[in-house]
Structure formats: C-alpha cells, structure tokens
Design goal:
The chain has six helices and eleven strands. It is an alpha+beta fold. Helix content is 23%, strand content 26%. Strands 3-4-5-6-7 form a five-stranded antiparallel sheet. Strands 8-9-10-11 form a four-stranded antiparallel sheet, with no helix packed on it. Strands 1-2 form a two-stranded antiparallel ribbon. The protein starts with a strand and ends with a helix.
Amino acid sequence: DPHYPKRFFDLPKTDNFGIGLYPIAKSESGDFEMQGFQCNAGWSASSYAALAVKIGDKTAIYFGDDNTSLEWHPTWGQPEGQNMTGKPSWPPEGLTMNGKPSDKGGLTMKSPNLCQSLWIKRQATGKGILGYYLDLEVRMSAPATWGLCGSAAVTEVLPTQRLFSHTEMTRVCKMCKVEQGCEGFHEETTAKDATSICVQNNIVWSDAVQKCSDPRVHEDLRKSCVFDYCATGGDASVVDNAAAESEHLSNDD
C-alpha cells in the first residue's frame, strides 16, 4: 500500500508511488530494519510486492505471492555485486509471531526486546499484476530518522545496503514483470492524485468518497481508501479492507 497516514516524529502524511526497493523503517540502534519492493500493481498505482525484515543478525523475506509465514536466514553484508547466501534458520531467539499475512487478522510480530512490533496483512484482489496488496504497520520505541516512516527525504535503497539477495531481487522483479534493470534504480512512478485516478478508471469521485465514508473506516484512512477504490476500478473489497485496517489501528491505540 503506497499510503502512509501516520509516520514517526509527527511527519506529515505521505504517499510513495515509486517503483523499486525502498527503505521503510529502522531502529536507532540498527537492530531492526525493514525494506519493501514496490512495483506497478497493474491497477494504476504502486504496491508492495515483497518485504524484508531484519532483526539482529537475521533477515526474513516475505513474497506476497505465497501464503507462507516468514522464512529466516542469516544477514550477511556483502560487497556490491556479490550474492548473499544463507541456509534457512529459526527466527531470532525471543521473537514472537502470531498468525500469517494471509490470515484474516494478518501477522503480528514483536522483537525479542519488545521495542519493535510489525503487522503485515495480505489482501487478495485477484486483479492486476500481483493479485494482492500488502498493508503494514510498524511501531518502535526509538526509531531512526530513516525510511518512509522516519524521514522526509527518501530514495531507493543502495545496492550495498539491500536486505534482498541477488536471487531474491530476481524473483521479485519477475513477479513485477520488471524485465530490464532489475537491480538498478527505477525512474518510473505511478504518482497521480485521486481525482485523476477516478477519471482514468471511469469512477465518479463523489461515489468513491461516499463508499469510503463508511463509519467503519477511520478518518485517517478515508483519503487513501478513495484513491485505492478508484485505482482498482471500484473494487468494493477496498472499503472492507480499510475497515479491517481501521479496526486493527483502533485495537492498538
């Protein structure tokens, strides 16, 4: 989901419509980090195809095209051009994980020191290139001024700082139908305002606003709900998902 209604340090709401691997959040100590690969979802907007989470010295990659829980491997820093390799291993000691991204309630993960928590929800659509989009929420006691959640200025992750290995980058590019320059930088963007997206997909903007004014949808999520409703061509499940995300946020408050 390219919308960020809440960010650390009271940063304003933002949308990220870029294509490529983006930094999402990191702890001040560096023991927690999250990155995500966005691609053109095929319905007029960008969406995350895969997420990488590092806790301590282990990293897990979640490819939204499957229904499995996260699989962990050692995090090994490698010089540019070399692959990261690592045999599957158990999650970091003390990590708690409940559910799976594809479950109704999504996956909730809490770091061993309980200073960071992560929620991931995979919402199937059956449309576009991916056929799904990912909702996420990151909470931490001491975030760094880094990534989409913690910084006003964000660019794609440098090759030497990627949590994705060469093999994993190749896989996600194939999922996103990125046929050239997979591991380079991507200038493409799907940036448009909600009104333009509605016109492009023959959706009456006022109808979308009415749909997303559902009392179940939190006020902070209504703008992104309108955008997604129009971007998906009027998919009613967008409103239901915004309501489910609102319930999750309310339960955490």
